Amino acid sequence: MKRLLLHLTVAVSTFCLGAAASIVRTLSVADTPEALLAAQQGWFEPLKIINGLDACGPEGNYHTYELSDGTHISNSCERLVSPAAADRALQNRLTHVTEIIERQPNLDDNGRRVGEIVVARAGGILEVRTYESSFCSTEAASMKHLKWYEQR
């Protein structure tokens, strides 16, 4: 009888451990090889920017950041000649995406539509947005990385 209880205890413990590991793995599904590496290493440490390059000018700015998990985030914004030019830049940037995840209007403080925001999959995750005649683009390894960058 003791042996049966021991076997039963081991079986239930093994099942619970496997179920927990499966849940953790499901929650850390990677979008790119870099994100897969980050997921395998575990996200027990908060992400940090460990290196970066900034280039700013009167008509635009460009930023590239290396994160503590080995991934990169790139962000750029350009002031174009018109809202129509910004819309064309957005459409051109979307030509090589594999999936549009989310598309919504970009609204100003008064609720007036002043552009568009699109989140898409293109190797990693791409967010492009227009605001009047400005066009901005952010590329990240995964949705987790993009959300982290936006909330930092």
Characteristics of this structure?
152 residues; alpha+beta; 2 domains; seven-stranded antiparallel sheet; 36% helix; 38% strand
Task: Provide a concise account of the structure shown.
This protein is an alpha+beta fold and 152 residues long. Helices cover 36% and strands 38% of the residues.
Class by SSE composition? alpha+beta
Strand order of the largest sheet: 1-2-3-7-6-5-4
Q: What does the largest sheet look like? A: 7 strands, antiparallel
Strand and helix order: HHEEEHEEEEH
- Shape call: elongated
> Share of helix among residues?
25-40%
Q: Write down the domain tally.
A: 2
The residue-averaged pLDDT reads 83
| % residues in beta strands | 35-45%
- Poorly predicted runs of 5 or more residues: 26-30
Q: C-alpha Rg, in Å?
A: 22 Å
Number of helices: 4
Number of beta-strand segments: 7
Give the terminus-to-terminus CA distance: 57 Å
